[in-house]
Amino acid sequence: MSQDLYETLGVSRDADGDVIKKAYRRLARQLHPDVNPDPATQEQFKEVTRAYEVLSDPEKRRMYDLGGDPFNGGGFGSAGAGQGFSFTDIMDAFFGGQGGAGGAAGSGRGPRPRARRGQDALIRLDVDLAEAAFGTTHELKVDTAVLCTVCNGEGAAPGSHPVPCETCGGRGETVHLQRSFLGEIRTMRPCAACRGFGTIIPEPCRECSGDGRVRSRRTLTVKIPAGVDTGTRVQLTGQGEVGPGGGPAGDLYVEMHVNDHPVFTRHNADLLCQVTVPMTAAALGTTISLPTLEADIASAESDVETAIPFTIPPGTQSGTETVLGGRGVPSLRGTGRGDLVVRIVVETPSRLDDRQQELLRELAALRDEESPDGQLNAHHQSVFDRLRKTFGQR
């Protein structure tokens, strides 16, 4: 391997400290004896570590650039004799700068805070179709973690407070030394006595057992916007679980489930309904009163249109569909409404008395339909079928 320290690390002579550190970490992962025990590789690892020890120190790097010997005076040479050289950066290369093997627990070279953000919560709310379409408000009873009012989230009993940990001196981590062929390897790990917090609660709060939060049932009012559908989630910021140590609360998500309606079927923003009329009404034509979805939320004092006149023209065939624009569900984004599709089903009488049969035979004779052959037609896809197929693909 080249004796030039810059070439050893694979960096240019004007590389800054971050570039040098990244290069060293990359090489350390490849050449560390725990990964590759080959003797030749161990020698390469020593050279890489030797180069990093010089180039990461501004004074030693300056001396090296000027042609001097940066190893005189207790540098790397003394470390090789086992005199306590720190290999924290070696451990950083394997554990992401988290202070060695114990860093995975969250120690960031210092005490970790007791207060942490709480989790988000999710509850389901059943609403009627009209409520989902036009919006409403609901009161919810939720069971979540809330701030302990006895200790105000601190976790300590009234009159007491957390005290610095004597084991780690309040740093939240302890030093562990291990001897190797390179000397003493020093790693930092979360303190086992205080679990990395740096403080100990000598007298925990009896109400929350030192957690800073308790379970409680509370009532919330949620505003449901117009146009929601099954699966829509309404976010209530800061209404979720309070975090450990009295940390900020997460969010509460209310997931909607829209109940089935006895008259209308919803497909996205459109409503479908089916009207059954007698054969005579379909033949002669009629006008019926068609209820609106607004009727479900109308009060005695309101002027909401609860029904609209719907005309069935003479000669209407069974399966005929009529689209009433703007009579569907309002858009969740507040731009317009869907349509109402009305499908007509003509009901053929199944029980006729003698007089009714006689009249129908007379009508058949008048229309020359006493012995019809029937007509064979190609399959016709109705508007309803096309809508159903389209909706089914979404």
From TrEMBL:
GO terms for cellular component: cytoplasm. GO terms for molecular function: ATP binding; heat shock protein binding; unfolded protein binding; zinc ion binding. Residues 4-68 form the J domain. Residues 135-217 form the CR-type domain. This is Chaperone protein DnaJ. NCBIfam families: PRK10767.1, PRK14278.1. It comes from Nocardioides panacis. Binds 2 Zn(2+) ions per monomer. Pfam families: DnaJ, DnaJ_C, DnaJ_CXXCXGXG. Homodimer. InterPro entries: DnaJ, DnaJ_C, DnaJ_domain, DnaJ_domain_CS, HSP_DnaJ_Cys-rich_dom. The gene is dnaJ. It is found in: Cytoplasm. The J domain is necessary and sufficient to stimulate DnaK ATPase activity. Zinc center 1 plays an important role in the autonomous, DnaK-independent chaperone activity of DnaJ. Zinc center 2 is essential for interaction with DnaK and for DnaJ activity. Zn(2+) 1 binds at residues 148, 151, 205, 208. Keywords: Chaperone, Cytoplasm, DNA replication, Metal-binding, Repeat, Stress response, Zinc, Zinc-finger.
